[in-house]
Amino acid sequence: MTTDQDEIRVLAPTGVTGSGFLESSFERGLELKPHFIGADAGSTDPGPEFLGSGATAFPTAAIRRDLRLMMLGARRIKVPLLIGTAGTGGSNEQLENLAALAREIAAAEGLSFKLALIHAEQDKAYLKKRLREGRIKPLSPAPEFNEAVIDRSAHIVGMMGAEPWQRALNTGADIILAGRSSDTAIFAAMPVMRGYPEGISWHMAKILECGAASVVQRRTPDCMFAWVRKDHFVVEAPDATLRCTPQSIASHSLYENADPFKLVECSGTLDLTNSRYEALTDRAVKVTGSEFIKAPRYTVKLEGAEKAGYMSILIGSVRDPFIIRQIDDWTARVTEKIHARVKMVFGDKLNPSDYLLNIRIYGKNGTMGPLEPVKEIRSHELCLIFEATAPTQDIANTIAGVIRHQALHLPIPEWSGLITAIACPYNQMERGAVYKFNVNHVVEPDSPTEMFPMSLYEVNGSTVKEIQQ
Amino acid sequence: MTQLAELARLIRSKNAGPFELTFDIMFDDDATYQRVKNSGALTREVVATRYNLPVSDVKFFYCDHAYAIKASIPRPYFQGDPRDSDGHGGQQYAPLMDIEIK
């Protein structure tokens, strides 16, 4: 007979809050009496614009649906609910938006709980101080990172480890919402805190953080469940039609990782070199042998986004074989014409280094760019996307207008007379502000929690009271 | 000779963070995986050649438990850079598909 002291049970409702899960699977997961429910709510995968602009990759209505079910479930069985990387990027603004949703749900459902918010956005003065101390180090590959980059950034967040979560759990918080977090830290925090082996705990966390992604064939985002014990963990999907096999679980460490055996966290590295995977049933897998190697120095990874400018684009296609066979030369000539015309329009008010003109050629190397090994164009038509990225939307629009006119009528030697060289399904379009990631570095903090301040609240339905710590 | 795409259950590419691309070549069973692994036709050097990169830029792994071979390379442009063409890195694996396996 297994008792609560012998294991920690973990329910992951979904891979990302807002991507959904089946209510039937979630109910089955709750029946298995998890000690906590965890999920992330973001990633860098959708791109830099979400951290940069504060928007979420999943619609608010979809996030509300998942959050409501998770909150109701967690309160019903009275276990902590941990949600990290609020609002896709995990900035303070995105955390506050998720907290507002949680308060709205609490008010509507009459829920009472202790709420912890863990902030991950980094103070610019703090980062400059650590930079000057030589305690911000580049990973590979890394863009240049200096005080000017810090100043330009829309948001820079630190990716928290398990310790800020453990601090929140130790306050007795019922619902913990956090800014940017290592996905695995959400799930490893409690088992590690209760003394379960770090290798087993972090490996379980790596599997659970993607919800049901590690089953043999996932039909839709769904729940995953794990039992962490003193020398192994077992993983099984609550939906009885989903199967985990040793291969499917072993394969999961490949997904979105550069190195499938060594996964770096703030406090050390999860090493899967000696992991063993065993089929416990035809649906459940037992994992042993995973190790965690403590880092000599605790590090926190930074993620930052800055505005790259404002973009306008023009889409046009080419069907004339004369133009297709000289497309590289044609784009070089049109580029020259565009720059010359922009110079005429703006004079000294805009330098060529102030804006970026980019031409994508679909049918040639639009998908792979410089990695494309196929050089010969075999298509009878090409699609071109012209992009102007400039300091303001107005300038970008103006350049896009120049692009349209220059590209339409660029002459080629095979024809004499005025030609119209590209087919445009519509005219130029605004893309608005565009962002780029600008840091791939780690900070060496004094303590694992110094970069992640926490606030606590007592929530009673629509009443919210801050708790002084 | 058989092409890799006919032997693999799945060949995929994906971001591994905003700065790296990773490739997973996954097989249904150990026998097929071992055949490819032992063929010598899919190596770090071959991946470097297919993507026109120095060998030192390629990370390369045999994953016996997963029946999978994995490689990772730096992105030509960081994810979300104005010149980046594949935000999720999902369509970068085609040059691996026609590797001939004995």
Structure explained in plain terms:
The complex is a heterodimer of chains A (469) and B (102). With 469 residues, chain A is α+β, with helices and mostly antiparallel strands. Helix content of chain A is 31%, strand content 27%. Chain A has helices at residues 23-31, 48-53, 60-77, 92-109, 124-132, 147-152, 162-170, 183-193, 198-208, 246-252, 321-325, 327-346, 393-409; strands at residues 8-12, 36-42, 81-88, 112-118, 136-138, 153-159, 175-178, 224-228, 233-236, 262-264, 268-271, 276-279, 285-288, 291-294, 300-318, 356-362, 382-390, 429-437, 441-443, 454-460, 463-467. The two termini of chain A are 40 Å apart. With 102 residues, chain B is an alpha+beta fold. In chain B, a hairpin with a 4-residue loop joins strand 2 (10-15) and strand 3. The radius of gyration of chain B is 13 Å and the shape is elongated. Classes of the chains: A alpha+beta (469), B alpha+beta (102). At the A-B interface, helix 10, strand 15, strand 16 and strand 18 of A face strand 3, strand 4 and strand 5 of B.
Secondary structure blueprint with pairings:
The complex is a heterodimer of chains A (about 475) and B (about 100).
Chain A: E1 8-12, H1 23-31, E2 36-42, H2 48-53, H3 60-77, E3 81-88, H4 92-109, E4 112-118, H5 124-132, E5 136-138, H6 147-152, E6 153-159, H7 162-170, E7 175-178, H8 183-193, H9 198-208, E8 224-228, E9 233-236, H10 246-252, E10 262-264, E11 268-271, E12 276-279, E13 285-288, E14 291-294, E15 300-318, H11 321-325, H12 327-346, E16 356-362, E17 382-390, H13 393-409, E18 429-437, E19 441-443, E20 454-460, E21 463-467
Parallel strand pairs in A: 1-2, 2-3, 3-7, 4-7
Antiparallel strand pairs in A: 1-8, 4-20, 5-19, 6-15, 8-9, 9-13, 10-11, 11-14, 12-13, 15-17, 15-18, 15-19, 16-17, 20-21
Helix pairs in contact in A: 1-3, 3-4, 7-8, 8-9, 12-13
Chain B: E1 2-3, H1 4-7, E2 10-15, E3 20-26, H2 30-39, H3 44-50, E4 59-63, E5 68-74, E6 100-101
Antiparallel strand pairs in B: 1-6, 2-3, 3-5, 4-5
